[in-house]
Design a protein that fits this description.
Ten copies of one chain form a homodecamer. With about 90 residues, the first copy, chain A, is of the alpha+beta class. Chain A has a single domain, classed as 2-Layer Sandwich (Alpha-Beta Plaits), CATH 3.30.70. Chain A contains two helices and four strands.
Chain lengths: ~90, ~90, ~90, ~90, ~90, ~90, ~90, ~90, ~90, ~90
């Protein structure tokens, strides 16, 4: 099941998050290899991304998002996705 | 080059757009086959979609969007995407 | 899986929707009996409701919502819900 | 009488609220056992919840909410609920 | 129990609501005499009012509001009120 | 002359305002006794109130509001009120 | 007493308001001559104005605004003004 | 003097504006040749543009904008521009 | 040339700006005497003002605003004004 | 390919960014000389600018923006631009 997720990151001025950023990247790569984090794009001009997650349940998605190393500094918007009637793959 | 596009469709009450909807679907399938309209998801609960387009220029994207049969009834938001540093494919 | 849904209904002035309203009620009762539409509350002062749906997938939810008789006159906001760590039932 | 409540929690960076969080959970469980806090769901991707309270008066609700341990860090939106004409239980 | 209510009225151009306006006034006077509609003020420069209602339950308030003759043309915002700790009458 | 005032109080984390809160209450009681602060209600779930002031001029209202002890921590919205044509007292 | 007023005019497409516009202008000139409508500026690029009215009471202002010929097509925002401590005239 | 202008065009459904669109284009070309309308870009995905005008006074700009053939169907936002300290031409 | 300016001042808690406030007042008086800052009104209930400036160019206005002593703590909105067709002085 | 960019700069109170500002200016001049940063205007009354960039790809634009010395203190909005049908240069 697919979910569209927008993440806007805002780090308080002066806070060193180097370790967290590295941990975030490692976790993101891990989830992409697992086929859970299926799309991850940078929004031009912002410390933000659009992502798509493929998970079995809402709870699974919340567990993933809320344990991301940068979660405390993120504003997250989750939008559930359904199959579009004009989706080529769905014809 | 990837662009994230949100389309919200609002048809004026009483207007018959059956033909336009069919033409929209045909055009969407055509663009997906051409590898231009690379993702198309329905936003649950809305006559809206999140899409991703792969185009060479801004002009090409505008020509595509502004000639969609349902374009006159769409509110469209375009966000340019860049490669995310944690994108598995970009490692 | 639970989804929180807000529905705001706006009927164009002068349009007779008596039949649709009756069909909407019948459908709502049917979905409640089926255990899908698990909560349905009226927002005081508005032609709106807060609801909770229990469905297996996003697609199922979209099919339900988009085929509601009053769907063309609804603004719908869907929020996926997860288990709260302080939920008594989850202890 | 039912009230729909949305709580968005924002803890200032660096502030240790471990005790408050524990106290919040204990209080939430207590209120759920008392049948006052009748629904409590986590909003996926956010330190937020949708809740439903069953109280006798507005004052009772405000006393409950304003004495929650995490209240100083909460943005709260309260919406009074009425019986929906299509509520199965109300037929 | 007190509820603060804001009503913004918007009549579609060309629609004659003379009768409804008269019926609205009669109903408002009736509810004020009954001690239910306890405050009713005109917002300067707008076809809007701030009101305060004294009712026993949410359902009672919704029944009153949703049966107002001008209800179909109103945007209504309801805010439950509690006793303020500095309210002179509450000392 | 009546003015509707909404006050939202936000105290910076860690700042001790006990004295100010006490002074605010004393001032509020004083103004109520003087018939200036004619209504004061707590908005359920928020450190906010709806109030109504009866003053002779805009300047008088601004002097009162801007000298409230908690003024530096308040977001204030002032709406001038006029007599409503359906106000019972105005018939 | 001074009030800042913003008026945004929106005429429904196809409606002939020539007479109303003429009546509006006559009324505006009349009120300016009476020293009530003390400032009237066009907002560049919009069918809108910023104005300042000098009236004795809120009711007087509402009567003036609500009887303007174009009132039914106006969105109006009223902001009460007080003397600014740095106002040269107030030194 | 430079002004940044955003124009969003919304044509009521079913209204034929072919002549107006042609007149708008002719006028735009005329103003560009006159060095007044100095930049005109299409916002991708919208019937909107960002423009920059070079005019002597606010009044001149309002006269130009408010006499554009499509003006009745435009939402316009005007932002005055000043020389940026890092503008190469201003060094 | 007239510009409408709204200034909202927000001083970070605990910061002593007494000198700046005095300097701001002196500068405001100076500009008023010079006929540049032609109107300055306090918005009731807020540390904000509506002002009107009479300047020759946008650059002049920006230089004035951006060198105000309290500028670093101000949110400023500038709206260019044109002569209103119903302005008595313009007849 | 042209992109419209709005940058709003907000420096935390008390933070000395003199070096960054100088570095930002140097970088801006460099990019203007390179024909990449093609327009740069100050928004009157704000620490903000409207700019237009001419780049080959989204990634190039993001690299430029995200490495600007003041980037950590900027809110940036990017809007892709297309050729306007009434653009004189495009006739």
């Amino acid at each position: 099941m697919l979910f569209h997720v927008r993440m806007d990151v805002a780090i308080p001025p002066g806070l060193d998050v180097t370790d967290r950023v590295a941990a975030e990247k490692a976790r993101a790569l891990e989830l992409q290899r697992a086929g859970v984090w299926v799309h991850l794009w940078r929004i031009v001009g912002r410390y933000s991304n659009f992502s798509v997650f493929d998970v079995a349940t809402n709870d699974e998605l919340h567990d993933i998002l809320s344990t991301l190393p940068l979660y405390p500094f993120m504003k997250i918007e989750v939008t559930p996705l359904a199959t579009h009637p004009s989706d080529l793959a769905a014809q």
